[in-house]
Amino acid sequence: MTEDRFQLLVEKYLDGALTDDEARELLEAPEPFQSRLLDEVTTAGLLARVEGKPPADLVAKVRAALRPAAEKDAMVGRVMGHLPRRRTAFRPFLALAAAALILLTLYAVLRSPAAPPPPAPAPVAVATKVAPAITPAADVRPAVAKAVDFLRRQKLPAASHNPPQTPEELVLWAMINGGVGAGDPTFDKLLKQVLAGKLQRTYCVSLQALVLERLDRAKYRDRIADCAQFLVDNQCLNGQWSYGAPTLPARIGGVVKKTRDGPLSGNNSCSQFAAMALRACVDAGIAVPPETFDRAIRAWHECQRPEADGRIGWCYTRDESPHRPYGSMTAGGVASLAILHKLAGRDWRQDKAAQAGLAWVSYHFTPEENFGPVEELMAKEMISDTPNQRTELYYWLWAVERAATVCGLEKLDDKAWYTDGVHELLATQKADGSWYSGVKRCQPVWDTCYAILFLTRSTRPFAD
Questions:
Q1: Residue pair 40/104 in contact by the 8 Å Cβ criterion
Q2: Coil, helix or strand for 130?
């Protein structure tokens, strides 16, 4: 049994896709895997599986450890009640595993019979010290104003990978950073639409948290808490985020407590937006469960991918094989780890994965190319048949701005990333004020928003 095989089988079990033979393989795993497996929830689920029962609901599996003592006793009784009727050579091991389950359960339940278990610690907000915003270069202001005027004139594009929501939040975030706020007719109209809508998708919810925290964190605190609740409830079992689904609002007073899990795994694009939003929620005074940060950090660690030359970055998902790392995801990974470690009260500089990702970004940085994604997108027929080094270029530049800012870097190795990016963007802005990479996956509205966010240095640096 290898680590990779063990992780694969555990994931298949949690996803309800484990075969009987694979269940037996897990239960017969040698040490140290066996000690990791002999957890009361996992063992009970596996016993039910090899007894021929259908897989339990995923939420019930991951929450089984929180059941009251009486329910745990009943669960053990049901497992034991089935064992004598099972005619199989595997029966002796089942009895042994069930016995281990009983001992674990009874020890946990009976070791302190006179008093109930202590309540779980309440989630706490980890305040982050924010340094003053970095003033953008003076020569970008006319370009940003022209770009904002372009956005005012546009009909928002239809949703593609984020149905049913269109990108109002992205436009609002670009406009705020472009110097537009409450009182502007276009801004007010978009904000009204956003606040009247449901929280449905990770991208939009994350951007909404950024917008509301920057706009007025006190006024919109309850809505920001609902954004935090959405993110906590939609975190995948492996710590990532996917596109998300509606959940319940936060408790009265803005208290956020996890009520469910998301799917088994997600992607690094949604996950980097979630990290940005969690920071905004905490900055607004929302108490986010600390384990949210730790699970997310672990997910970024587990899906990092090496190149042939040994440099290490990130793709869209862990399973995006054999695709190499690429720019926007790797810069997003660096920014996310720096943010998540800060929220968890740790120093991101001690994280080898973050440092490796930063080295990748520094080596590959150019304002003229988003290194890597074009081959993957061509394979999926999401762009034209002609390779285009500017595929998602502006998304890449914004990701670099986020990563460099939260890491406190004005240079990537010897490259002045902001100066170089400004030079490129000012030279390529179109007459109508927009930017557009020219591939069908991208949209002028989105590309223009990303360019504004880079030019205005939209990310607030940490104080240390």
A1: yes
A2: strand
Handedness of CA 368, 328, 374, 393 (dihedral sign): negative
Distance CA(147)–CA(435), nearest Å, equals 8
What pLDDT shows up at residue 247? 94
For the chain, the structural domain boundaries read 3-110, 138-455
Which stretches within 217-370 are classed as H helix? 221-234, 268-283, 291-302, 327-343, 352-364
R_g of the chain computed on alpha carbons: 25
Domain 138-455 CATH assignment equals 2.120.10.30: no
Question: CA–CA separation, 148 vs 434, rounded Å?
Answer: 9
Share above pLDDT 70 across residues of the chain, in percent, rounded to a whole number: 67
Token readout for 458 is: 């939209």
* Locus of tokens 């929280």: 199
284: Cα within 13 Å, side-chain hemisphere: 32
The Cα 434–Cα 153 span in angstroms is 11
Token representation of residue 159: 């949703």
- Report, as an integer, the average pLDDT of 37-56: 49
370 falls in which pLDDT band (50, 70, 90)? confident
Place of tokens 């069930």: 98
For residue 223, what are the β-bridge partners? none
Tell me if the pTM is above 0.90.
no
Instruction: List, for residues 266-305, the tens digit of each pLDDT value.
Output: 999 999 999 999 999 999 999 999 999 999 999 999 999 8
Closest CA to 212 of 148, 255, 274, 169: 169
CA 407 centroid distance within chain: 19
User: E strands, 249-365, where?
Assistant: 305-306, 312-313
Contact present, 264 and 314 (Cβ < 8 Å): no
What tokens does 124 get? Answer: 């706490």
Contact 453, 400 (CB under 8 A): no
Report pLDDT for 70: 52
d(CA 217, CA 224): 8
Alpha carbons 405 and 334: distance in angstroms, whole number? 11
| Residue 373, pLDDT score | 65
Which of these, 376, 378, 382, 403, lies nearest to 457 by C-alpha position?
Answer: 403
Quickly tell me which residue has 């905490």 as its tokens.
282
> What is the tens place of the pLDDT at every residue in 388-434?
677 789 999 999 999 999 999 999 999 999 999 999 999 999 999 99
Say what angle helices 202-216 and 168-177 make with each other, to 10 degrees: 30
